[in-house]
Input
Amino acid sequence: MSKPIDAVAVENISKILGEYTTGPKITKMFSLLGFFDYDLQRQTDNQWFKASTKWRRLDETIRHECNASLDCNNKVTT
Output
């Protein structure tokens, strides 16, 4: 049985990915993986919404996808 994913690890990975990739590449990655892009949806719903930083966008989506997974071992813990 695997351990839950540590929230700090997800945050650190998100920061690294955010530093070395672009917003459009993140959008494409989410699309290819079938991940819902919460930040992009908020921008669509509200023209005055200020986008999150790349790492926060990654962090939010990765945490949500892990916690929504049918495999309970993928939960992100704080």
User: Anything to note?
Assistant: The helical segments are 7-20, 23-33, 38-45, 54-68. The chain has one domain: 5-71. The first strand starts at residue 5 and ends at 6.
